[in-house]
Amino acid sequence: TVLVVDFGAQYAQLIARRVRECHVYSEIVPSTMPVEEMLAKKPKAIILSGGPSSVYAEGAPKVPDGLFETGVPTFGICYGFQAMAQTLGGTVARTGLAEFGGTPLAVVSEGVLFDGLPERQSVWMSHGDSVTAAPDGFRVTASTEATPVAAFENPDRGLYGVQFHPEVLHSEHGQAVLRHFLYEGAGCRPSWTMLNIVEDAVEAVRRQVGPNGRAICGLSGGVDSAVAAAMVQRAIGDRLTCVFVDHGLLRKGEAEQVEKDFVAATGVDLHVVDAAERFLSALAGVTDPEEKRKIIGREFIRVFEEAQREIMAEGPVEFLVQGTLYPDVVESGGGTGTANIKSHHNVGGLPEDMKFELVEPLRTLFKDEVRQAGEELGLPPAMVWRQPFPGPGLGIRIVGEVTKERLDILREADAIAREELSRAGLDREIWQCPVVLLADVRSVGVQGDERTYGHPVVLRPVSSEDAMTADWSRVPYDVLARISTRITNEVREVNRVVLDLTSKPPATIEWE
Ligand code: XMP
Q: Of the residues 22, 99, 127, 167, which is catalytic?
């Protein structure tokens, strides 16, 4: 394990991911964790992340006492670099020469970190304070125009540091610097491979559930629940029952993907509930977005509970499988064994009074790792690479009342947009592209010699890292043109296609 000590920057998760990309397992811990607790995790190396404060600021996070005396190889980045310098007797000062963004770096001594790398490289900087003198026993290995001490190391003590951010892609050789620290500086081995990850996770589930335990898992059609279910299936076979509530609000082909392709690929024991009619009648006449979400969430839980009762009639079920990911665990403070789902965000969020022990085989994984694990487990690619899709589904992409006819219209338009984006090779580049039907809006058009009075659909392609913020994607005009032409030709009720050019904030990604 490599511990990434989080000094409060949004960079800690990125660092942890980059470490794993070097095939070394990493975990994020808070900077307030005492050193004994860190050592109990038997770390091979420790990385100190960047952070927003100045090391001199009041209340600035401190390096845990005794960290540099543990003998565990340690790598300080940005704030971590300055904190290391300050703790070990170097000096850190506000020189007035801040650096932000791409900055040329000169390697003055290769050492371990820059071994074999070009003497001049561009690195990503973001700092106001600078290290003005390295601690005794440290060799300065790189500098920039504004920052003479931009990297230093003391290989005898296993201590390394850089002022720049090796974890961001704008640092040309950042990944190599990190790899050098991990392999040469800390003696880590690249053993964190997808095959091992899947095998370990399967073994852990086997241990947790025991030889006779039974589990259920709700499938949403999304990648997380699918991968979690496939792992648990591999561990306990048909002692797992999956429940798929088809609420009739999925996109074209998605229910079939779960019921046929997923089952064929995994051999999962699947319990399908076709609840489309029930959801439609519950949604009849409802136009308020929050009201829709509440109704869909409520109906979902009721249907799931009924299915669960049927399954429990065949014998007790002690475990509930959930596709909780590592970022959710970290963001909610980590640690405990409770579900950390953002409840308003998950139609699969289950009632609290259900007494199950949770099985969360993806708790240590990032999204991209979940996708790789899905590939390793042989899941259908369309499922593994599916873009984020909200739990309430197309129900919140029809502005106005949700009806069967409107769902059918939207499903057709959405399928065309997805097909063309994927044909243009953009579906992995774009974060997601909701297609929204403005069901209560009509506009005049002309097709052939006839006047039409149809509905507009909105294309909402966005790029994002984590859906917290987003920008509208610059999809090439010819791709947009094809989507527009095909939708207006092939979906009779639609006579206008419009593009949403708003970032988030001020807008959200979804329209409701
Ligand atoms: P917004 O519209 O809030 O969406 O910018 C951010 C991300 O969350 C997804 N989303 C949901 N996902 N249940 C979900 O599982 C929901 O109720 C829900 N609402 C929004 C949305 O698709 C985007 O990826």
A: 167
Among the options 22, 78, 217, 433, which is catalytic?
78
Q: What do you get for the CA distance between the two ends of the chain, in Å?
A: 42
Complex-level ipTM? 0.98
> Contact 475/435 with Cβ under 8 angstroms?
no
**Is 78 marked active-site?**
yes
Query: How close is the Cα of 485 to the center of ligand 1, in Å?
Result: 28
Residue carrying the six token digits 């994020």: 28
- Quote the pLDDT of residue 362: 96
Q: Based on the fold, state whether residues 38 and 84 are members of the same structural domain.
A: yes
What is the whole-number distance in angstroms between the Cα of residue 467 and the centre of ligand 1? 8
Residue 510 resides in a domain: no
pLDDT less than 50: residues of the chain: 335-349
The number of distinct structural domains making up the chain is 3
Residue 507 resides in a domain: no
Tell me the residue range of the domain where 441 lies: 397-499
Is residue 345 part of the annotated active site? The answer reads no
Q: Supply the CATH number for residue 112's domain.
A: 3.40.50.880
pTM: 0.84
> Does residue 512 sit within a domain?
no
**What ligand 1 atom has the least distance to the C-alpha of 464?**
24
Q: What is the pLDDT of residues 284-320, one digit of tens each?
A: 999 999 999 999 999 999 999 999 999 999 999 999 9
Residues 142 and 110 in one domain: yes
What sign has the CA pseudo-torsion 67, 69, 75, 80?
positive
**Alpha carbon distance 166, 174 (integer Å):** 4
468 lies in some domain: yes
Is 225 known to sit in a ligand binding site?
A: yes
Phi/psi for 58 (5° steps) reads -65, 135
Residues 7 and 153 in one domain: yes
